[in-house]
Amino acid sequence: MDEPKQTLAKVMWRQQIWVYPLLIAAGIGFAMLKISDYRKAAAFTDHGVKVVGEVTNLHETITNKPNTYDVAYIFPTEADPYNRGNQRVREQLFDTLSDGGPIDIWYLPDDPKQSAVDLGYLTRYFRLALLCSAVLMLTGLVGGWFAIKRARATVLAQGSDS
């Protein structure tokens, strides 16, 4: 009995080619998330208004992973003297704050609900994240290229055996 001829698509599926587009998509998605945070920090730097607000709550979450530090605050704008915000901050900033104390806050004049107290937290690990994204995408592209080459060679080898 003759074996049914293998197609390129069947060989690639058996070699799990679907993994490589997933790696590329993951790299693109991860990069988009970090670029979004970076653009947000840039918007505060370029167009933000700096005001002095008041810390309303400090919260430290202690875990076996790196601890997290959250700050809740209120700040005045021209339209509303009691805008509220909340942000995760770095430990260095957290240690300098006290409940009820002053805090520098940036907000966007066209959207005062968008505010930040630690612009460095928004941009942390930006370059590392882009490097990881590039590695994911490159792995997907190179791995996919090799998988296609192997699948073609398999199909050609089967064709020459017949």
Description of the molecule:
The protein has helices at residues 8-14, 19-47, 91-96, 119-123, 126-161; strands spanning 49-61, 68-75, 83-89, 102-108, 111-116. It is of the alpha+beta class. The chain has one domain. A 5-stranded antiparallel β-sheet has the order 3-2-1-4-5. α2 packs antiparallel against α5 (126-161).
Largest sheet: 5 strands, antiparallel
- Compute the number of strand runs: 5
Distance between the termini: 13 Å
Q: What Rg, in angstroms, do the CA atoms define?
A: 26 Å
Total number of domains: 1
Order of helices and strands: HHEEEHEEHH
Average pLDDT, to the nearest integer?
A: 88
Residues in helices, as a percent range: 40-55%
- Number of helices, where a helix is a run of at least 4 consecutive DSSP H or I residues: 5
Estimated share of beta-strand residues:
25-35%
Principal-axes shape call: elongated
| Strand line-up in the sheet with most strands | 3-2-1-4-5
Q: Which structural class matches the secondary elements?
A: alpha+beta
* Unreliable stretches: none
Topology of this protein?
Blueprint: H1 8-14, H2 19-47, E1 49-61, E2 68-75, E3 83-89, H3 91-96, E4 102-108, E5 111-116, H4 119-123, H5 126-161
Antiparallel strand pairs: 1-2, 1-4, 2-3, 4-5
Helix pairs in contact: 1-5, 2-5
Core attributes:
five-stranded antiparallel β-sheet, elongated, 5 strands, 162 residues, 51% helix
What is the compact description of this entry?
With 162 residues, the chain is of the alpha+beta class.
